[in-house]
Amino acid sequence: MSTATQNLTVTTRPWNTRGHADHGWLHTYHTFSFASYYDASYTSYGPLRVINEDRVAPSKGFGAHPHAEHLIWTYVVSGELSHKDSLGNVETLTRGDVQFTSAGTGVRHSEWNGHTEREVHFLQIWAKPSTKGLAPEYVTRRFEEAEKQDRLARIIDSVDRVGENADNAEGPIALHADLTMDTTVLSPGKKVVHDLVAKGPRKVYVHVVMKGRLQPKQGGSQIKIGDKVLGEGDGAFVEGAEGPGTVEIGNIGDSEAEVLVFDMGQK
Question: What is the distance between the alpha carbons of residues 119 and 78, in angstroms, rounded to a whole number?
Fold first, then answer.
């Protein structure tokens, strides 16, 4: 294990301490304060504002509602999620698709599960933009399983690093914030090493995707970062990271682990 990882301070966010709601049609966990869940200790982390892990029942969903001055993206784990917005975008997302909306000066959208039998499982993530008053923007990009298998795939990156690339078919989605999101599907016994994307102090957050509605009492996905072990639905705040440097994540469980890694500035 690298020296950079050993010097980190890792504070876990256990799955069952997050905000949680079961509305019948919506089963959700909130890493940060959201809707009726509020905890002053968990309102944001760097530019990260929301990490919701949602399961929506067949033929149910969120009606049209407004957003402004947030960067919002959806990472589909399984099932089908349909989207419609005031910019004229209408599409259905499946596993591998990441849909990004820069709400900017204002946009309305709705999201629903159009399938009549299977629920849809996805993560919705929000961040605060570094620039206000942006024109609304919408991007969908697909990331194949091979890109994530036992390696880190860059899903989201700062426009300052990758440039305006909304028209590109490949590569990370650009957003106006000092933030990246990588993902990996890590086999048992394998590890990945994340290279911090900028010089100086960095905040890192790691989230393990859930396979079911509860974390298994035994087995299931398990990763190790620093001296801490994370199971399904767990997250970790990583402090002390400084670029140039690395953060190492290893799978110590007996099954694959799907992991999201956020690397961001201090604000």
Answer: 8
Secondary structure (3-state) at 237: strand
Location of structure tokens 């002053």: 40
Cα distances (angstroms) measured from residue 266 to each of 49, 119, 234, 248: 13, 36, 22, 20
Give one word for 226, left, alpha or beta, with left for phi > 0 and alpha for psi -120 to 50.
left
C-alpha to C-alpha distance for 172 and 142, rounded to whole angstroms? 10
* Integer Rg of the chain from CA: 17
Contacts of 168 by beta carbon, 8 Å cutoff, 6+ apart: none
Contact 241, 201 (CB under 8 A): yes
AA identity, residue 145: E
User: Over the stretch 109-160, which tens digit does the pLDDT of each residue have?
Assistant: 999 999 999 999 999 999 999 999 999 999 999 999 999 999 999 999 999 9
Handedness of CA 191, 197, 199, 200 (dihedral sign): negative
SS (H, E, C) 209-251: CCCCCCCCCCCCCEEEECCEEEECCCEEEEEEEEECCEEEEEE
Please report, as a single letter, which amino acid is at residue 89. Answer: N
The CATH number of whichever domain residue 136 belongs to comes to 2.60.120.10
Cα–Cα distance, 74 to 218 (Å, whole number)? 29
What global pTM score does this model have? 0.95
Count of structural domains, the chain: 1
Nearest Cα to Cα of residue 62 among 25, 97, 107: 25
What are the residues whose beta carbons fall under 8 Å from the beta carbon of 38, sequence distance 6 or more?
none
**Contact predicate 247/4, CB 8 Å:** yes
Cα first-last separation, the chain: 29
* Domain with 208 in it: 3-264
